[in-house]
Amino acid sequence: MRAPTQETALLSHALPLSLTAAVNPVAAGSSQAAEFHGPSINEFFPDALLFAGTPFEIDRLVIIRFIAVAVLLVIGIVGTRSMKLVPGRGQALIEYAFDVVRRNTFDNLGEKDGKRFLPILATIFFSVLFLNLTGLIPGFNLQGTSRIAYPLILAVVAYVAFIYAGLKKHPGAFLRNALFPPGVPWPLYIIVTPIELVSTFVLRPVTLTLRLLMNMVVGHLLLVLFFAATQFFLFDTEGAFKLFGVGTLAFGIAFSFFEILVALLQAYVFMLLTAVYIQLALADEH
């Protein structure tokens, strides 16, 4: 009875080893098998550099945010310090970028209200854009918007601007008309009011936050996956497996350009939705 038991134990240990050898034939003959380590959520939580364990903890991502904001301020101050009637290339680029925000703001809010809210919308657009692009800069390799704090703060700013615009324009009717839309039969308010409360005053800041956050998180993870796989196939495998590294490198480069488009698009969408929400608050229906 003892021998069959030992044979069963040996087979149970040999089976996983044979499966490993079949799946990873490159490392099957070596004592140190190469392993691929994909990206994880820990990418967004690097080790603390200053004030560890306090609410003011500073890590690499926070420093990236500081640097991105500092660069944005320097470009804004230096680029607009000596404006000329006939702009040079730098001034023309800044004017064009700002004009994109201005035209979209005026299209949604009109010139009068657009001038009031243009500073907020321009700040949202350019800060989101610069912090999104840090994920593509060598040495940074991490978007400043890939952790929830910054997207959440911007969503709160947009939410406060929305509430302020509505209360300022329609102090007595904004909240009432938002929760109890005119023309709806009174019995239906039992259903309509909770829906309006959640959709208008809860989901809007939540969706603004999550839309930006998740796009940046997914984009970063995909880039890390492509380039980590490239390193693995090119340096840790042998033979024909190295060809996979060429493919993952091509995908990584192509997706890097796609991430530039996503960074620009997410900044534009965040700014545009904020302008639309403010426009809804200013509408005469309230």
Automatic annotation (TrEMBL):
Superkingdom, natural source: Bacteria
GO function term, MF aspect, one: proton-transporting ATP synthase activity, rotational mechanism
Transmembrane segments: 62-80, 117-136, 148-167, 188-206, 212-234
Pfam hit, one: ATP-synt_A
Primary localization class, coarse: membrane
GO cellular component term of the entry, any: proton-transporting ATP synthase complex
Topology of this chain in the membrane: Multi-pass membrane protein
Family: Belongs to the ATPase A chain family.
Name of the molecule in the record: ATP synthase subunit a
Source taxonomy: Bacteria, Bacillati, Actinomycetota, Actinomycetes, Micrococcales
